[in-house]
Design brief:
The strands form two sheets. Strands 1, 2, 3, 5, 6, 8, 9 and 10 form an eight-stranded antiparallel beta sheet that branches. This protein has a two-stranded antiparallel sheet with strand order 4-7. By secondary structure, the chain is an alpha+beta fold. It is 41% helix and 18% strand. It is built from eleven helices and ten strands. Helix 3 runs antiparallel to helix 6, helix 4 packs antiparallel against helix 5 and helix 5 packs antiparallel against helix 6. The termini are close together. The protein folds into two domains: 182 residues, no CATH class; 80 residues, no CATH class.
């Protein structure tokens, strides 16, 4: 089975990309999700790079505008500016409170959550190697837990044009925590926010740039000292480069298209 994705690039040119899907139990289950979702509009909060052109000050202004109905996270910014510590506090607050509000406020916090991560990436000069595609809350009850170990199907590095399922938990990966918040070694908070890949969602990504990464040298010492033993006790295996930088390979692009980094929007998805 193949998947057709109609995209628009940064020059507003339309392209049709065809992906040859793999044949394994995760891909089969994912295809069932896509059959239900392919006619539902994508959530542009998850599916384009609409924050890429914002500078740091514009990120901050937009984030304050979104959070003006929520006194606690807004107070963090007003008192302390938007440094990494404040970003961490806001992220923790959103993770704990996002589903405690009505739909309108939940949508606002979903957008604030994505904007916050975009701000952090811009501030830390980090460029994602993936173009995300998803439905957000429109996915509804199709979200579920994996019945098998997803890491059996992980690949690292991924290649340009690969279609993949990446980690989609509502929190942070352990190595991201280390990069942004290594001074905080509160175990209760760490294990509330950091999880392995457990949730099976339809949201997926296109690899736009193939790179191989390695953990920082300081990570191993920090990880061993603070969290490694309990992580392995809870989840049965260590956290490594495959789990952090890799993803579940769903399929490969068989179209004659090279400029994956220029994808700007997705107009349609069709199983063929």
């Amino acid at each position: 089975m193949n998947l057709q994705i109609d995209i628009i690039d940064v020059k507003e040119t339309q392209h049709t990309l065809i992906f040859k899907l793999l044949d394994n139990e995760i891909v089969k289950k994912w295809v069932k999700k896509i059959k239900h979702l392919q006619n539902i509009p994508l959530d542009d909060n998850y599916t384009n790079r609409k924050y890429n052109n914002l500078n740091l000050e514009e990120h901050k202004e937009k984030l304050i505008s979104l959070l003006n109905k929520f006194a606690e996270p807004l107070e963090y910014i007003i008192k302390n500016d938007l440094n990494q510590s404040v970003c961490n506090q806001i992220h923790t607050w959103i993770v704990k409170n996002q589903y405690n509000y009505n739909q309108e406020h939940r949508d606002t916090l979903h957008q604030a959550h994505r904007l916050l991560h975009s701000y952090e990436q811009k501030k830390n000069c980090y460029e994602s190697n993936f173009f995300p595609i998803g439905w957000g809350e429109k996915e509804g009850l199709l979200e579920s837990e994996f019945k098998i170990d997803p890491y059996r199907f992980y690949q690292f590095p991924l290649n340009r044009g690969d279609l993949c399922l990446n980690w989609t938990e509502f929190g942070k990966k352990p190595y991201t925590w280390f990069q942004e918040n290594k001074e905080n070694v509160d175990k209760k908070l760490f294990f509330e926010e950091c999880k392995p890949h457990q949730t099976f969602r339809a949201n997926f990504e296109i690899c736009t740039n193939s790179k191989s990464y390695m953990f920082d040298k300081d990570w191993l010492e920090w990880w061993e000292k603070n969290f490694r033993k309990e992580w392995i006790y809870r989840y049965g295996s260590d956290w490594d480069e495959l789990k952090h930088f890799g993803g579940i390979l769903l399929g490969k692009c068989i179209s004659n298209f090279k400029n994956f980094e220029d994808i700007d929007k997705v107009s349609k998805i069709t199983l063929i």
